[in-house]
Structures
1.
Amino acid sequence: MRILHIGKFFPPHPGGIERTSADLCAALAARGVSVAMLAHAQPGTRCSHRVRTDEVEVTLAACHGQWLYAPVSPTFPWQLKQTIQRFRPDLLHLHLPNTSAFWALMLPSARRVPWVVHWHADIPLDSRHAGLRLAYRLYRPWEQAMLRRARAVIATSAPYRDSSPALAPWRDKTRVIPLGLPPVPSDNADAVDSTSIKWPSDGVRLLAVGRLSYFKGFDVLLRAVAQVPAISLVLIGDGECGNDLRRLARELGIDARVKFAGRIDMDPAGTATLAAAYAAAEIFCLPSTERAESFGLVLLEAMRAGLPTVASDISGSGVGYVVRDGESGLLVPPGDVAALAAALRRLADDAGLRRRLGVSGARCWREEFTLDRAAERTLALYRELLEPTARPGKASPAASLSPGSDA
């Protein structure tokens, strides 16, 4: 079986989609699948190049930059054509959103093989970026053509599938396969015991991880932390809202209790440092306010580390699918400072509750959200689609690959 994945970027480029697609490729390769990946090089890279990692052949097309989050890569269609000719895939696995994936619609060699579309997120039409909303009018016909052409569509959670306007016409061929994380690599054990990240003050250690963007709700988190003096916060990540958040922390008078740790690259040293931060924390929080938070991969990182989580109960997002309120964490209304502060205070004051939620969350990760489970479910779907009798839109056993797929 030969599978060509088509993605937007590839690690060490930051992002949950990049990381999960790379992990999935490696896990499939470990199961004997011949896997290749075509993605874009880091923005500003003028030359295409090829690397091999975890037994996966990765081609990175030259990328001159981005426009409205879309990579500018004139050579991508040529690289796609060449990769298909060289690798000769049995199936294309396309990770969306990604405008460059639309080239598959125009290449006869791409249309001759079946497709799986991996639907990581809708284009956020409630974005503050007016240009993005306008550009979607041009993007949507291509997006729908991709979905129409696909043999199957993978959604990462049932709530996100059911709330997606883009996926509504294609629900009969949409399968729910949640994202998954591997165990923390054993060679990171020493680094986990000797992290360089220190909390800024005494008190219960709270961790938050993510891009410092408006929809992540870190301003809400800072206002909540201001109401809970027992909390000391480390915030890992960078982004366009970084300066505003630092200014807000000073205005709230909590800058002595908040550490902005910046971005941690996903090379081995960065991965170990991040794992160490999770190991040292006592509570994890994902305060996102909008459905642009489609799943919340960092929640799985926290659950894997045995941390109790506090997250926003965003309608139509996968966050509430991952965190079970009162079982593996606490859910609060998005953007509600008082509710978030109350949840943080409750956990800060009750070590027994922190322990119980953390143990339950780790069990939930082991039972439902490991990389092994995600890879096995994906491989089962490949096998089904590559059967000689498979047809686009055909109802099949793959619909039951994930518990709760009809939830």
Note: Residues 2-182+370-400 form a domain with the Rossmann fold fold (CATH 3.40.50.2000).
2.
Amino acid sequence: MTNEKNNSLVIGLFGFGVVGQGLYQVLQDVQTANATIKSICVKQKEKLRSLPQHLFTFEPDDLLNDKDINLIVELIDDADAAYQIVKRALLNGKSVVSGNKKMLAHHLDELIEIQKDNSVALLYDASACGSIPVIRNLEEYYDNDLLQSITGILNGSSNFILSRIFQDNWSYADALKHAQELGFAESNPTFDVDGYDSMYKLVILALHGFGTLVDPADVFHYGISTISDHDIRYATEKGRKIKLVAQVTKINGRRFSLFVLPKLITPEEYIYNVEDEYNGVIIEGQFYDKQFMFGKGAGAFPTGSAVLSDITAQKHHYRYEYKKLNFFDPPVVTRNINLEVYLRYHDLLDLSHFDFESISEKYAGPDYHYVIGKIKLETLYNLKNLIRKLNVFIAWTGKLDIND
């Protein structure tokens, strides 16, 4: 039920972790938001919290069925629970702000239809790149058919680890441990360091950039968890850094490819100097060349501010129009491209799984071996489950050949 007199928002908040607490503080400091949190639903009953107990509940229905609450803000880690919360809220006629990129990537097609049928809004700018308003920009500024590619460092945790490695000469194990101690990485860091987080964000950006709904299962993603001192030394000797990069590229106007891979970055590239927990996104168009967006991709206040931006947008009845999905002929996904990659290996049996189109460089040493060559993205995709069991590391050199 919207208060028509002052157009105020009454928020039901799910989750009071780092981002939830950041949002609460931001709302206290920004009085012009004209939004108040009425109730907060949390899971852990025994946890001590700094706010009055009457603000908290452990029952989702207390928020979802409260007629005074006209906006649900979902900021929890559990993607399955987030899906149920967001779906029920939209069906109940409540607009939603969400930051759960995994949930969104898997269910956007259904949720888009539900919010349209129920005349409510689903906003999620905070789900990709923290404080960088990349989704809103793709929706509003790049709402044409000129967009050619989106390239970015989309995960602050892995970037922080790689910064310690290349700036401070730390080992991967020490950098990961430090990231965990500072709260940048979870005790189980797989979601971040193996590229899942970046992949889910890339699926969301592909929708707003190109108008195509992509099943996350169709996207090849590979992370940094198997990086070794050999790979770090190779990159350093070549004057490069390794960054975990997500890329979506339009091909011949009819198709596009997308993947997540470590990349050997040259000093000339915009994202070479994106360090620590920062994100950087390069948007390239047919006539406007490259544009670069930079900002913190994680943390209580950067992400909380992004959530506030969605809240403010909803106050003014903003919703995504999905122009490219609704009014364009969206391109389709293809994996029929060649990538030039660096592949470090130790066992010829491991190398034998990779069907290279061509090899331009080989090295065989006493401790490790590597090859540089062209391989189809489709080949890597078909190996995606096996690769993580092999003693190898893969990095993209930046070269891409189109077969379509």
Note: The chain has two domains: 9-123, 136-297+330-402.
3.
Amino acid sequence: MEQPNTQPPAITVEELEKKYSRAAQVSLANYSFLMGTTNNNLDELKKVDYSKVAGVKIFMGSSTGNMLVDNVHSLEHVFSEVDALIVTHCEDDPMIKAKQQQLIQEYGEDLPAYFHPIIRNDEACYKSSSFAVQLAKKHNTRLHVFHISTAKELSLFTNKIPLKEKRITAEVCIHHLWFSDEDYKTKGNLIKWNPSVKTLYDRDKLFEAMLDGTLDVIATDHAPHTWEEKSLPYLKAPSGGPLVQHSLVAMLDFYHQKKISLEKIVEKMAHNVADLFRVQNRGYLREGYFADLVLVDLNKANTVQKSNLLYKCGWSPFEGHTFKSSVLKTFVNGHLVYDEGKFDESNKGLRLNFSR
């Protein structure tokens, strides 16, 4: 389920449908695209058929692309009038800009990447996500908060009710479970994401919250910027990195470390995703459901190298790491589309459908 901050942004029904048309021609995976929000496209949001679109994405903090929604009245209208799952990226933009300006004045323009979690800190995340939760409670909106990165934000969510009854949900991303701010010194811009990778304490608390049901799903925030873009100075390099290829094997490393069960990985990466987004006939091994399956070898080690990357961008923050497991085969809608390094492109993925 992909983000709308592409070029051009998916902020009209016409542009959104162009992405679906393109995916139908080339995507080997099943797909959906989120509708993008601006301060003034409420009419377009109301035209969308949300049985065929995953939801409405609001950037409540600026990220890659110029889609910041910072008008309180616009936010009120979207939360109260759009009958869809509202999905948010939450960071407080004025706080971030003020902190960045302060650091530039103090240290100059050539800041190293380890300033990223100082600029995009837990206070900026909490201020924005707490406001989103406040709006959702006020209007009884279905809200899903993307990429929670701080321990502080966990108080906004609950594990006291079943996922299917929750109106407010949240996710954690692989990179926020794997990396910490100690890694900026060696990885630099390669782990520059928004929200930023934060402290070891935050990382450990996110893992606990994922296990206990406070955080509902595991995601990737896959953003395959080019090597040239990521090689720019910290302040000019875009945020985001490629992650889909290694998301499952990364979680299986945690399984090998006895931090999580296989059943919990499946729950957080398949069952709960289908339940939360109300994806029709997917996410479970059930008669009558689409056969979307992956076959893994838990004991076949796999060292990440440029030569075995499947990303067009040609780099990964995991380069040099040896995962303990390997993905052998992937079936999409019952078709074998990936088989030990080779793709069969004769069968394309399908557009996801959603229960309303």
Note: The longest strand covers residues 326-332.
4.
Amino acid sequence: MKKILTANYLLSGKVIYLTSDKKWVENSEDAVVFNNQEDADNALAFTDTQINILQSAYLIDVLLTAKGVPKPKSNQELIRATGPTNYFHGKQTEKN
């Protein structure tokens, strides 16, 4: 089991991920990876204290690259992590 915690910023709607020091970042590669259900559930419970910051928190399955970087396992979460697929927008413009 390898999971990361994702949500959306309440005001902007941007996709965010939880880091090991309980900060929210926009890059899934910086997210803390949970290897057991108890730690994942505790992190999810932490989001109850963040209701003024985020919405719709949930855990997603990830695969680790050869360098140990988490990548969303599902196509839906890959698209969500990188933004729209029909034009460069948001995070995609930063990579060009």
Note: DSSP finds three helices and five strands in the chain.
